[in-house]
Amino acid sequence: MTVGEAALEVRDLQVTFTGSKRRTHAVRGVDLVIRPGETLALLGESGSGKSVTARAVMGLLDQPDTEVTMGTAKLGGRDLLAMSAKERRLLRGSAMSLVFQDALSALNPVLSVGDQIGELFRVHQGLSRRQARARSVELLELVGIPAPAARVRDYPHQFSGGMRQRILIAMAVALEPGLLIADEPTTALDVTVQAQILRLIDRLRRELGTAVLLITHDLGVAAEVADRVAVMYAGRIVETSPVDDLYDRPAHPYTEALLAAIPDLDRPAAELRAIPGAPPGPGAADTGCAFAPRCPRATAVCERTRPELVAVPGSPARTAACHHLQEVLDAVRT
Amino acid sequence: MPSVPDPEARAENPGSRAANPEARAENPGSRAANPEARAENPGSRAANPEARAENPGSPAANPEPRAERPGPRAPKTGSTQPAEGAGPRAGKAEPVVLRAENLHKTYGSGIFGRGGGVHAVDGVSLELRAGETLGIVGESGCGKSTLARMLVGLERPDSGEVTFHGRPFARGRRAPAPAVRRRVQMVFQDPMTSLNPRMTVLDIVAEPLDVHRLAAGRAQRRDRVGELLDLVGLAPELMHRFPHEFSGGQRQRIGIARALATDPEVIVCDEPVSALDMSVQAQVVNLLAGLQRRLGVALVFIAHDLAVVRHVSHRVGVMYLGRLAELGPAAEVYGSPAHPYTKALLSAAPVPRPQARDRTRIILAGDPPSPVDPPSGCRFRTRCWKAADVCAGHAPPLEGAAAHLAACYFPEAGR
Ligand SMILES: Nc1ncnc2c1ncn2[C@@H]1O[C@H](COP(=O)(O)OP(=O)(O)O)[C@@H](O)[C@H]1O
Ligand SMILES: Nc1ncnc2c1ncn2[C@@H]1O[C@H](COP(=O)(O)OP(=O)(O)O)[C@@H](O)[C@H]1O
Ligand SMILES: [Mg+2]
Ligand SMILES: [Mg+2]
Question: Could you tell me the pTM of the whole model?
Answer without folding.
Answer: 0.84
